[in-house]
Amino acid sequence: MSTELKPAARPGAGAPRGGGRRKLTYPVILLIVAGAIVAVSLLRVVTGTNDLTSAGQFSAALAAATSIGLAGLGGLWAERAGVVNIGLEGMMMLGSFAAGWIGWQHGPWAAAAIGILGGALGGLVHAIATVSFGVDHIVSGVAVNILALGATQYLATLWFGAEGSAAMQAGGNDKQSPPMADMPTFTIPGLSDALQSLENHHWFLVSDVAGILGGLVTNVSWLTVLAVLLFVGTFFLLWRSSFGLRLRSCGEAPVSAESLGVNVYTYKYAAVLVSGALAGLGGAFLSISTHFFQDGQTGGRGYIGLATMIFGNWRPGGVAMGAGLFGFMDAMQLRSGGPTVHALLLGLAALLAVLALLRLRAAKRTQAAVAGVAAVLLVLWYFLTDAVPLELVEASPYIATLLVLALFAQRLRPPKANGKPYRRGQGA
Length: 428
Known about the structure:
By secondary structure, this protein is mainly α.
């Protein structure tokens, strides 16, 4: 008797399609991206904030999106197998610390490798607690975050800040590791220079596209390239292979998967270990890009990664788009701060005005009124002020996270068995 899952046995395969969510096709996605570029270009021209589409802005956004995207991809692996992984932040901490510990001694590539192992260790703890012992997934994830924070602070004091130690003599202290060597980057010389020349003209749309493309081909870390390959590989492995079908069945209908011969425990363990490893690589990227581990370095990026996974509807492409959005906001507040965030007030007002019209068309008058009033207030804020408070600038990535989740929550569908306890033979 065959134990392979047939395509027809895929959870939800026989569900009616009428009245469901419309699947985004590649042409639609390209239209959305093109529309976003035109909108940002128009916003740059109206506000005169040229850094909105500069190569430097998008280069920084790509770097910020890498760590966030890897955390989100890690969350996708775990939750597709039915395990909620709110411990992504702690796994990033472990990866960041491990990278700082090894990186100053053996270089950035060794730091990346040990960062993966550090995150996988956190994933193993989470898997043992949730899969083997049935601990509530949220409780276990919070515990992993707390344990990782305490462990990294203690070990940093012990290994980096010990009086007379080699690490302290090399520039470390109880809050950070000694610096490590640079991670190699690549630039496409001729193309990069040509795009920079076009960007400097500040032409509508043409210069904006040149700035965006310039940020993607100038001083790009090889770890970013690896992250892109991991996204592509995740898609093909989880959606184009029998392994991925079996793993996803563990998150949709584990009892049915078990009846067809799938070892649900094995797949859950594998998914959570991969989840931790990807989050650990995201944490390692932070240490490598700044050249050292520092206490508090992750700064909530694990939670933002979790938000990108939800925004992306548990799909690699959606996670990548969410990581790009949050990476842009993170880079914006780090690079240019107040002026750019101030310009975005106008852009956000335009988005809320469109949302108000859509809600009015759908006969949802209360929501339309709230969105319309908010849009008017943002326009007034923009024209009556020249800058925004520093505290708001620093909080802009987190505000963007909340807004995105609030606007897109209704169209999301997590795996059906996500977070639910499973015991072998429970369906017998």
